[in-house]
């Protein structure tokens, strides 16, 4: 199988780089300089019409959107390595639910935090509260999960790609200012996820 990964360091492609490192999947890597606008060139748009990174070309067929790539890598490489649950199991349903929650539900919260911190017209003195994990907020579900389900990782006793995916999104939120310090269960879990070797080297 031929895999070509289009990416840029410290971008939304970083979580995919971490997954590829965690799974030790052989692939070719092509750097797209998004600061220089290479993502908008005709050649790259022919590969990824979204004009963004990441993009993973599988045997000549491009796949874009990070969540789709995460789920595909989990299904095709993660099951054999014990990092993604088998199809037809309750854990697979949990995995898909939490990964989608991270990118869609909590991702929307992080988008609001980013706007509140980067756009003068939308700047809010209380912008950190937007992303706080508090009752009624989307992130509160994660805090409740970490506190009430007495398991070290998202799906149970073993680390999985679900921890990586959710941890990357929550970690990016903390970088923007969404607070987790007041929630020890989440903070401790996030620290463990970020300590993984694959998370350290695959920027």
Structural key phrases:
Glutathione S-transferase Yfyf (Class Pi), Chain A, domain 2, four-stranded mixed sheet, 9 helices, Glutaredoxin, 203 residues, 4 strands
Describe the structure.
There is one protein chain. This protein has helices spanning 14-23, 42-47, 66-78, 90-118, 127-130, 138-148, 161-176, 184-194, 197-201, and strands at residues 3-7, 28-31, 55-58, 61-64. It has 203 residues and is an alpha+beta fold. It has two domains: 3-78, Glutaredoxin, CATH 3.40.30.10; 90-201, Glutathione S-transferase Yfyf (Class Pi), Chain A, domain 2. It has a four-stranded mixed sheet with strand order 2-1-3-4, covered by helices on one side.
Condensed summary:
By secondary structure, the protein is α+β, with helices and mostly antiparallel strands. It has helices at residues 14-23, 42-47, 66-78, 90-118, 127-130, 138-148, 161-176, 184-194, 197-201, and strands spanning 3-7, 28-31, 55-58, 61-64.
- List how many beta strands DSSP finds: 4
Secondary structure tally, helices: 9
Radius of gyration: 17 Å
> How much beta, percentage-wise?
5-15%
Distance between the termini: 24 Å
């Amino acid at each position: 199988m031929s895999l070509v990964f289009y990416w840029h360091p410290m971008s939304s492609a970083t979580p995919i780089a971490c997954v590829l490192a965690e799974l030790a999947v052989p692939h070719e890597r092509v750097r797209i300089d998004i600061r220089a606008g290479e993502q908008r060139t005709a050649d790259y748009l022919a590969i990824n019409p979204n004009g963004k990174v990441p993009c993973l070309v599988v045997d000549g067929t491009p796949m874009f959107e990070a969540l789709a790539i995460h789920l595909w890598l989990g299904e095709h490489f993660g099951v054999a390595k014990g990092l993604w649950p088998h199809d037809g199991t309750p854990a697979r349903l949990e995995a898909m639910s939490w990964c989608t929650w991270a990118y869609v539900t909590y991702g929307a919260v992080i988008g609001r935090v980013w706007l509140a911190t980067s756009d003068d017209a939308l700047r809010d003195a209380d912008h950190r509260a937007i992303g706080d994990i508090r009752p009624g907020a989307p992130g509160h579900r994660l805090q409740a999960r970490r506190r009430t389900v007495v398991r070290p990782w998202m799906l149970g006793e073993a680390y999985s790609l679900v921890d990586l995916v959710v941890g990357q999104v929550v970690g990016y939120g903390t970088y923007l200012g969404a607070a987790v310090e007041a929630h020890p269960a989440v903070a401790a879990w996030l620290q463990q996820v970020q300590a993984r070797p694959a998370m350290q080297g695959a920027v």
